[in-house]
């Protein structure tokens, strides 16, 4: 599609507002435009797309199937434009942005508590922290610091080991009181909670004890350790998680360890940054801050 045939941001805003209100008049009020201006922008957008976006029935607007599909895409585009604009606005003479990617539960439970005081020590560095569960390209994603779990290798990056991992089963006290646990296989009666990023976790835990069960891969599956921990606290079953991620609940008695066997992972947690950014002030300041809190 040639550039002159691409829709304008004004057209996208008008369409999104009209679709949200199902009214050109209300959309016009929100955008401080006239009703006819909004209607004209939507008509031009329909001509560009060569699809009707609204049906007009008894003076009321209804999204067409094509309109519903395009609304989802338009919102993604507008959100990306807004995010990119804020990203550039955060750059300034006295401030610099440091983009940090972290594993979701690791970030919430381990990283964030260690950031207390960083802003006061380095007021010129603005942290932009996002969750990443899947592998990604640091350069393409504009990430300058990445926290990950693995072998300590990242292409074209320096990796600093943070901590090893020990996984333990955890469940709510009430769940444990309902099941007599005389051996590890008794845990299968509690429902094994699965974590999508660690599909082999229960199998490896049982295998390390020279045990096998067909239930190793059965049970509700969650995207993150945090969700699995919450499910365990709610009494949904028993989760296999890194001990340090569950330590708060274990100390408070909200979770218990139903069988005292822990498995040391072969992998570990690391902090990585691109080799060519090693001497950047913001990268050096952040990595030194984290290393001082290991």
From TrEMBL:
Record-annotated HTH lysR-type domain positions: 7-64
Pfam families named in the record: HTH_1, LysR_substrate
Entry keywords, A to Z: DNA-binding, Transcription, Transcription regulation
GO MF entries: DNA-binding transcription factor activity; sequence-specific DNA binding
Domain of life: Bacteria
InterPro entries to which the protein is assigned, alphabetical: LysR-type_TF_proteobact-type (IPR058163), LysR_HTH_N (IPR000847), LysR_subst-bd (IPR005119), WH-like_DNA-bd_sf (IPR036388), WH_DNA-bd_sf (IPR036390)
GO biological process, one term: DNA-templated transcription
Keyword Manganese in annotation: no
NCBIfam families recorded: PRK11139.1
Protein family membership: Belongs to the LysR transcriptional regulatory family.
Name under which the protein is recorded: Transcriptional regulator GcvA
Lineage of source species: Bacteria, Pseudomonadati, Pseudomonadota, Gammaproteobacteria, Oceanospirillales
Gene: gcvA
């Amino acid at each position: 599609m040639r550039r002159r045939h691409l829709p304008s941001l004004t057209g996208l805003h008008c369409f999104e507002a009209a679709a949200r209100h199902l009214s050109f008049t209300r959309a016009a009020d929100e955008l401080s435009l006239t009703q006819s201006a909004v209607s004209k922008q939507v008509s031009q957008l329909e001509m560009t797309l060569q699809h009707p976006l609204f049906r007009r029935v008894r003076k009321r607007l209804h999204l067409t199937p094509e309109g519903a599909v395009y609304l989802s895409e338009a919102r993604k585009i507008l959100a990306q434009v807004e995010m990119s604009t804020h990203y550039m606005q955060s750059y300034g003479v006295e401030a610099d942005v440091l983009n940090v990617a972290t594993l979701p539960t690791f970030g919430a439970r381990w990283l964030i508590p260690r950031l207390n005081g960083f802003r006061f020590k380095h007021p010129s560095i603005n942290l932009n922290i996002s969750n990443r569960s899947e592998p990604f390209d640091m350069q393409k994603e504009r990430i300058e610091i990445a926290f990950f779990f693995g072998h300590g290798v990242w292409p074209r990056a320096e990796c600093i080991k943070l901590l090893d991992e020990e996984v333990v089963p955890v469940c709510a006290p009430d769940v444990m009181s309902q099941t007599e646990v005389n051996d590890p296989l008794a845990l299968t009666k509690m429902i094994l909670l699965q974590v999508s990023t660690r599909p082999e976790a229960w199998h490896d835990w049982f295998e390390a004890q020279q045990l096998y069960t067909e239930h190793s891969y059965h049970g509700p599956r969650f995207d993150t350790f945090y969700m699995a921990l919450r499910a365990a606290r709610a009494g949904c079953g028993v989760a296999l998680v890194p001990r340090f991620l569950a330590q708060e609940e274990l100390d408070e008695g909200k979770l218990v360890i139903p069988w005292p066997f822990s498995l040391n992972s072969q992998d570990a947690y690391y902090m990585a940054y691109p080799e060519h950014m090693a001497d950047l002030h913001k990268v050096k300041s952040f990595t030194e801050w984290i290393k001082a809190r290991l």
